[in-house]
Design brief:
heterotrimer; A alpha/beta (263); B mainly alpha (658); C alpha/beta (322); B: 658 residues; mainly alpha; Fumarate Reductase Cytochrome B subunit; Fumarate Reductase Iron-sulfur Protein, Chain B, domain 2; 4 domains; 4-stranded parallel beta sheet; 3-stranded parallel beta sheet; 27 helices; 9 strands; elongated; C: 322 residues; alpha/beta; Rossmann fold; 2 domains; 9-stranded mixed beta sheet; 5-stranded parallel beta sheet; 9 helices; binds flavin-adenine dinucleotide
């Protein structure tokens, strides 16, 4: 089974201060830690497990700045066979449609059976790249996948729905799937492992290599245009309880008792 | 007639004996060769050339370290070892006498015979004591398996048959002089045999004795007797300081198994179990026995190398080093180093265990989830707590702390450490340090956001690549800012900077590394700060493993405590080099055992038993684990945990004692 | 006049709540931009749903066909392509849910009509449609405009709009299902419950919910002990389940359970909408997070900026003292 996995390098912002750049068009990146998008990590692991079980090869690809190479090396160390990068310059500022267009071009270069992507990216959270890519390729797709069973030329996947429910979908190959977290437990990649793949060649493809013409992607070709970023008001709604932990704890208990009638 | 002894008296078949002896010697030499090959198949560590004669001599000849804490064990070993050596030398002497120059005559012979008799008695007494110790006194908490019985019984049997031969000889042909062999004489006197009977019995026993002795010789290198060679070699190694790490590339090129030294360690081990007796994990009831780990690793290496009297073909696919020690056990070691100082042969089970971890981390197989997460965090965030880089200086909020990157021109770096920087409770420690430094006019700069994890536990967990990477970043930062001295409140950082970075960068060795307790000792000398009395307090001090055992700092923190007015220091039962680990080292902070009590609880209980009001420690992990232990073991309200630095800062003039 | 379509999401015999949130948005756009709202109900035997929707919007379009029994991208997209081409709505909105995420982005690409996903607001900006999206873990808002096209799509984050109340009676109109293609490439095979387990967080009056802030599996017992002392049931956010620290049955949120406790005490939860969307009802929501900018404080009634472990310890102490 030939599998292409699309990955993205994103900043970790859950526990960090996110500040806007002075121009208001992006965030300040200096103090943020970057790494593979959480959902993509599961996707890469899943691809490798499929390969280990059914044979074939896994290629990981990204469209992103030069630093994204680290993310690709990490994927190679996990067990991906090949990695490719698409020269980011012409994709700078591209919306998910532009990115999907580039990835579709890449997916056409080889007879892939399966293209995997994260269900969404932790930074901009569109959740579009996978299904839009499927649209450009004209392949069937399934989003939010939490399990994959191969059945010959078909696969059976579980899609996560709301409320602890899943639906089972049979999908013909080739197909595009977007992977939801928790589908597996991604393995640890040691630096030694990363070093072992350090000499592995990661080709950088130009737009022309993937059949994308000049001006077809990038900021100006976008279907979605940013009007600017802003910081939402913090804690606008909540009444903040202040004081030493013991005092706060007492307030919490009071509220619990008053409103919950317990404790 | 002058006293002498005729070799081969009453034994006509010399040729048979010599052939057997040749075979035994051949097997012996072959075995030694095989061991040698087994050892040298390991990768070489980079070590200095000088070594510590005193250490080797004291331990090898006087068994100094075996007596420690177990005098019976010491006596047992001395008896067997010296009995053995004397009998061996006796054999050599008589061989020289027989073949080269005849000199064993007259008084010399009498003395010789006497000494040999005594040696035989010593040997048998040693074996008897060994059994007494194992089964009656139980002083060593030994684990005995069949091979141990075989060894002991064979030794006993060889001496016993030796005495039989002697006694029967004296019975069959009493010499003209009175032979000073009390045991032989006694056997001769109680024997009821007539002369022809004694002659026959002598011949039979002579052969039994010879065959037993030759078997022992042949079996020697294949048994735990090999420690006779391996232990001294290992002690020689012990004195030769490790000078540099192998780079990842070198390590990879050299193959993936254990180092030569580690292999020697495995063969030097006699399973005496001292390590397990002091192991904090084992003491807490967790499924780790350093002794068993060394044993398992030894079997692994022998299996992988096809070692044996009849060599086996080594398995086609080399077995995975990650499996050399039990799946769970390998993650339980806290690298506290207690086993290492306890081992008479300077075996370091934790090094062997760490080596197993490196293989697991490399393959990603069998790495506990939490540990994996910690490593991912160090990789991504440069600290184990998933703390954002932008928050590394949160502890300094509202304080005026000189940061190198902002232009501080200092040669001393105050390395805060991840846990002190990100744990909100522990942020009080660097804040306190800053207050003391300010009061003392003690100059320093901090790396601020450039500071990354010292990675002690990353290395402890076996992720060497990540360790090198992060260590490299810290080393670069130290160099970039011209740091000549490092002061840190974190013993893990201290140990790593002082003992590990040295092996990576030539410049690092020149940098002075101090734990903050040592800096405080300097600052407080002569009552400099005028610390104020905040009332009578009984405190007990918990020696962090990485400050004490691993870095040799025991007195500085105690001196600091003594210079705080009103503080009375009570020592715990286990303190200084025998301090009990809190359970936080070597990555154990992130690994949970399937069974057993928490080490932090055990230690909290010991500390509480002293009746102290405050448990003082000087390490973020010790703090966390013991504080946790105090809470879970129900000592809350009776004793509190504090860092040494906080205790000092509270007594600064003008501060109110919290 | 230009139309705005609301795609009705329904599953296993009932309309999903999120639909009515989209209805609210459609009504807002009717007021703000003069768009004419219509509901689009696709399915098999969905006449009752159309009846329901008719009570909310002036127009309801029904596509009823046995082949549409279970939602699938292929079948629904075929219907919508046909419908959109004929009716040319200016905007099509749907919930940003497993339904919306599967259906809308790809359809938008195929029709070359731009789509903004996961919007927290959609409105007019200088005469053109614009969407607001919440990015970087809810710490930043982004305003988006659409490149000019024949029409647009938007999927709406759950909880961004209050569910609408019925108002008036609208017309119901049937639209024929287009002829199916020679073969489908996907097939619906059924549903599967994943959150079955012994605990039922949905009925608990008091929930203590922990998020990724719990850091370590080792800390779970601490939280469990506190929950026990509080008389609360322990719940959690998704990462805690993904890491297998707690069972799926304890997960609150869109892909977990929807809860309606009297008191919801969240510790170390950032407040992702997928989580918040699972907390319903009039109860009190107290959030503890050490990050003052955490979006959870925008959803909570009471907030505490503090290390959750300090609060756990303080609570345990207070409870122990009693
Ligand atoms: C289709 C889909 C469905 C989903 N369904 C769900 C769902 O049903 N339920 C759900 O929960 N999520 C769901 N998610 C995931 C959701 O997007 C978030 O990723 C998730 O809710 C984040 O969980 P968290 O808040 O626990 O973790 P994080 O976002 O990582 O936040 C952790 C928070 O803890 C705080 N913190 C850390 N340490 C401490 C400390 N010591 N003291 C105090 N605070 C601390 C941090 O400041 C941070 O705000 C879904 C995602 C998708 C794509």
């Amino acid at each position: 089974m030939e599998i292409l996995v699309c990955v993205k390098r994103v900043p970790d912002t859950a526990d960090a201060e996110v500040a806007l750049r002075p121009d208001g068009r992006g965030i300040r990146e200096e103090d943020l830690a970057f790494g593979i998008n959480e959902w993509d990590n599961y996707a890469v692991e899943e691809a490798i497990r499929l390969k280990e079980k059914h044979g074939g090869a896994v290629t990981v690809a990204t469209i992103g700045p030069a630093e994204s190479e680290d993310v690709l090396r990490r994927c190679l160390a996990m067990g991906a066979d090949d990695a490719v990068m698409i020269d980011e310059a012409s994709f700078r500022g591209a919306d998910p449609y532009g990115i999907a267009r580039g990835l579709a071009g890449l997916a056409r270069r080889k007879a892939y059976d399966l293209v995997l992507a994260g269900a969404l990216a932790g930074d901009d959270g569109y959740g579009m790249t996978g299904p839009v890519l499927a649209g450009y390729l004209g392949w069937p797709h399934a989003t939010l996948v939490t399990s994959i069973e191969v059945e010959g030329k078909k696969i059976a996947v579980a899609r996560e729905l709301e409320g602890g429910l899943e639906e089972i979908l049979a999908v013909e190959l080739p197909a595009v799937l977007t992977i939801q977290t928790g589908i597996n437990e991604p393995r640890y990649v040691s630096i030694m492992g990363i070093r072992k793949v350090r000499s592995k060649d990661i080709p950088v493809l130009a737009p022309a290599d993937i059949g994308v013409g000049a001006g077809e992607v990038g900021e100006n070709a976008n279907l979605l245009r940013s009007l600017g970023l802003s910081t939402p008001p913090a804690g606008a709604e909540a009444v903040m309880l202040k004081g030493a932990p013991a005092e706060v704890a007492q307030r919490i208990l009071d509220i619990v008792k008053e409103r919950g009638g317990v404790a | 007639m002058e006293p002498f002894r005729e070799v081969f008296w009453n034994i006509p078949d010399h040729a048979i004996f010599y052939s057997l002896a040749a075979v035994a010697t051949g097997v012996f030499l072959y075995g030694l060769y095989r061991r040698y090959r087994l050892w040298t198949a390991g990768w070489p560590e980079k070590r200095g050339r000088s070594f510590d004669w005193k250490l080797v001599a004291g331990r090898v000849f006087a068994n100094a370290s075996i007596f420690r804490g177990d005098p019976v064990g010491g006596v047992t070993h001395i008896l067997i070892m010296w009995g053995f050596i004397v009998l061996f030398l006796g054999t050599v002497m008589s061989t020289i006498d027989h073949w080269l120059v005849s000199y064993l005559t007259g008084d010399l012979y009498l003395a010789y015979a006497f000494v040999l008799d005594i040696a035989g008695v010593a040997l048998m007494a040693g074996v008897a004591l060994a059994y007494l110790r194992r089964y009656v006194l139980k002083s060593g908490k030994m684990v005995t398996v069949i091979r141990d019985h075989v060894v002991l019984i064979l030794i006993f049997f060889v001496s016993l048959t030796g005495f039989m031969v002697e006694g029967l000889r004296l019975r069959a042909a009493p010499p003209l002089w009175s032979e000073p062999s009390p045991v032989g004489q006694w056997i001769a006197s109680v024997s009821a045999l007539d002369v022809p009977g004694a002659l026959l019995a002598h011949r039979i026993w002579w052969w039994i004795h010879s065959i037993a002795s030759l078997s022992l010789i042949a079996w020697f290198p294949f048994s735990k007797f090999i420690h006779v060679f391996a232990a001294p070699v290992n002690l020689v190694y012990e004195g030769m300081e490790s000078s540099a790490f192998l780079t990842l590339e070198e390590r990879e090129a050299l193959g993936s198994d254990f180092s030569a030294r580690q292999r020697i360690m495995m063969d030097a081990c006699t399973q005496c179990n001292r390590c397990t007796v002091v192991c904090p994990s084992a003491a807490a009831g967790e499924p780790l026995s350093p002794r068993a780990a060394v044993d398992e690793a030894g079997s692994f290496v022998r299996r992988a190398g096809g070692f044996g009297l009849f060599p086996k073909r080594p398995p086609a696919e080399p077995p995975k080093r990650g499996t050399a020690v039990g799946p769970e056990a390998a993650w339980l070691c806290t690298t506290c180093g207690h086993c290492r100082i306890e081992c008479p042969s300077a075996i370091s089970p934790m090094d062997i265990i760490r080596e197993v971890r490196t293989a697991r981390v490399e393959s990603g197989e069998n790495v506990p989830d939490n540990l994996q997460e910690m490593l991912e965090s160090v990789y991504k965030f440069k600290n184990p707590w998933q703390g954002a880089k932008g928050k590394r200086m949160d502890w300094a909020a509202g304080l005026d702390i000189p940061v190198f990157a902002d232009g501080a021109k200092e040669t001393r770096c105050f390395y805060v450490g991840c846990t002190f920087a990100y744990d909100e409770r522990l942020q009080e420690v660097p804040r306190s340090a800053a207050a003391i430094f300010a009061a003392a006019g003690y100059r320093y700069g901090v790396l601020g956001k450039e500071e990354v994890c010292c990675s002690e536990f990353v290395r402890g967990a076996g992720e060497d690549g990540l360790f090198f990477e992060l260590a490299g970043q810290n080393i670069d930062a130290f160099e970039r800012h011209g740091v000549e001295e490092i002061v840190t409140p974190c013993p893990h950082g201290m140990h790593t900077f002082a003992n590990e970075y040295r092996r990576m960068a030539p410049g690092a060795a020149a940098r002075r590394v101090l734990h903050v307790s040592q800096a405080l000792e300097e600052i407080l000398r002569g009552g400099a700060l005028g610390l104020e009395d905040r009332g009578e307090r009984a405190v007990t001090y918990h020696d962090p493993c990485f400050l004490g055992r691993r870095s040799g700092v025991y007195d500085a923190p105690r001196n600091v405590l003594r210079s705080i007015p009103g503080v009375r220091l009570i020592e715990m039962k286990r303190s200084r080099e025998r301090s009990l680990c809190c359970g936080g080292g070597g990555g154990r902070m992130w690994v949970e055992a399937s069974a057993g009590e928490k080490m932090g609880e055990v230690r909290a209980r010991e500390a509480a038993e002293t009746g102290a009001d405050i448990i003082v420690t000087a390490c973020p992990f010790c703090f966390t684990n013991i504080d946790d232990g105090v809470k879970t073991a129900g000592h809350e309200g009776r004793v509190i945990v504090k860092d040494l630095v906080e205790l000092v800062a509270e007594c600064l003039p003008g501060r109110d004692g919290a | 006049m230009a139309k705005v379509f609301v795609l009705v999401e329904h599953r296993r015999g009932s309309i999903r709540e999120a639909t009515f949130e989209c209805v609210t948005l459609a009504r807002e756009l009717q007021t703000a931009a003069g768009l004419e709202p219509a509901a689009v109900v696709i399915g098999s035997g969905v006449a009752p749903f159309a009846e329901t929707l008719a009570a909310y919007l002036p127009e309801t379009i029904v596509v009823d066909d046995p082949s549409l029994e279970h939602f699938r991208f292929e079948t629904y997209a075929a219907v919508l392509r046909d419908l959109i081409e004929r009716e040319t709505p200016l905007l099509v909105i749907a919930p940003h849910s497993a339904f919306g995420m599967e259906l809308v982005p790809r359809l938008s690409a195929e029709l070359a009509r731009p789509c903004a996903t996961d919007c927290v607001a959609v409105g007019m900006d200088g005469g053109a449609l614009a969407a607001t999206r919440s990015v970087y873990n809810g710490k930043i808002d982004e305003r988006l405009a659409f490149a000019p096209a024949g029409g647009y799509f938007a999927t709406v984050r759950a909880g961004s709009y209050a569910p609408a109340d019925p108002a008036g009676t609208g017309a119901i109109r049937a639209h024929a299902c287009p002829a199916p293609p020679a073969a489908w490439r996907t097939e619906h095979r059924g549903y599967r419950e994943t959150a079955a387990g012994a605990v039922d967080i949905t009925q608990a009056p008091l929930l203590l919910a922990i998020g990724r802030g719990i850091k370590d599996a080792e800390n779970i017992p601490k939280a469990q002990a506190l929950a026990d002392r509080l008389g609360a049931v322990l719940a959690c956010s998704r990462p805690v389940v993904d890491k297998k620290w707690l069972g799926k049955e304890r997960q609150v949120g869109t892909s977990g359970r929807t809860v309606k406790p009297k008191v919801y005490l969240a510790l170390g939860i950032s407040g992702a909408f997928q989580h918040i969307a699972g907390i319903k009802g009039p109860g009190v929501f107290i959030a503890v997070n050490r990050d003052p900018k955490a979006p959870v404080f925008r959803a909570a009634d009471f907030g505490v900026v503090e290390d959750m472990f300090k609060i756990i310890d303080a609570l345990a102490e207070k409870l122990g003292a009693k």
